[in-house]
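This is your field. Please look over both lines of this record.
***
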Amino acid sequence: MEELPPSLLIDILSRLPDSADLVRCRLVSKTLNASSYEVRALSHLCTPSRYHKYRSRNDNHLARTTPFKSAFKNLVLNSRGLETISIGVEKSLGRKSYDEVEDDGDDLYLTDVRFLEEWLPVIGGGLKSLSISDFWSQSSWRRSDALAFISSYCYSLLELEVKNAWLSVDGLKLMPKLTTLTLEYIRLDDEDLNKVCDCFPGLQVLNLIGVGGLKEPKIDFMHLKICHWIVSNAPTSLTILAPNLVELKLECVRPRSLVLETPSLSVLHLTVEKADKFKMKDIPSLISLQVAAWDLCCLLRMFRSSRAVKMLRVDIPKRNELVTPMLRLDTLLDYFPNVSSLKLGAGAWLAALCTEKNAFLSVERFEGRVKMNGLKEITAHVVFDEVETSLSFVSCILDRFADLSGMALLIHSEVDSSLASQFMWKCRANWPRVRWRWGIWEEGTQDIWLSDAY
């Protein structure tokens, strides 16, 4: 390895996932030791094992364990040319509450400005990417001015990520070069997002995951391309004004008002229980649409102008109501005539099956309507307690869509195995022209496919 060119050796060391590995490399040879101080990227992670060692040190002064912050400062201040820094606690520790950990120290309070003052002014000017994943048990009750401090010294920063902290926006300065911002599990003192929008005008990628403290947030970015927003609380209104946005994933509960002015979208994933007022500009270039909502048909009506959609996924989340909502497949035919791939979540499958079973969908209803002739494949999450009704529904689908050539059905893990085997066997026997794919699904787990792809 010592025969490698220095630039390649530095690049390899810069890709190590944890600073502990970098320190070990220093002990191998003089060449690796010298190169280790030239790395461009450094990641310093507090794992559960490290956390318990630090706690042992507090209880036993004889233990020889360098404090987490001190070890990080030594690494950073002795390195030359750092462009990327990641410091944080491992995910399994990061979201633990004070009650779970009972930790009122500050040795892992990483958005503490006093800690940032010890190293960030020295290297901040050369940083391109900075990630801080704080320890929630120590940070959740301490309001931090870390954003203002970072904006004062990291004037060349392109990417910023902060997790598990309470952040103020007081004193936040303009950061025109920042293109990517991720805030995850943050209590943010910017209830309308006005300060964020004003100080980060060049954002192209924005991730807001579980950001609390918002009342009437408005995302207003001219250059934004990608946005992922999981709303943790129930703000009065949500507004997104982004003329160049091409991909949006939005998950919220029940805002009284939802406004989307995103005419350039090509990919949209929308999960919302219900919006009392939903205002949306036409999205003529929308290609992929995923919608999960209790009032699904009402929401889909808002997308009637998006006739270019080719990939459609719909679902109806579980609720306590005994009444199953209706989902008329002919509605999908009317709204999205050019769909080639249709995915039905478990709630959507059940709603469509019940609608068919109750004769809301009949052959006559399709007369004079636009057909979904281009539909090639259907993927569905299936639940059933008897076979014949499900077979009848599959037959209905295949009769409607003559061009349909592939069906991928994921059967719920709680369905009796003998019923599932019988269902699969009859599907293959009754419709041999169709390419079948089978799998198993369960809430909260990844789908498992039992047969190969088409």
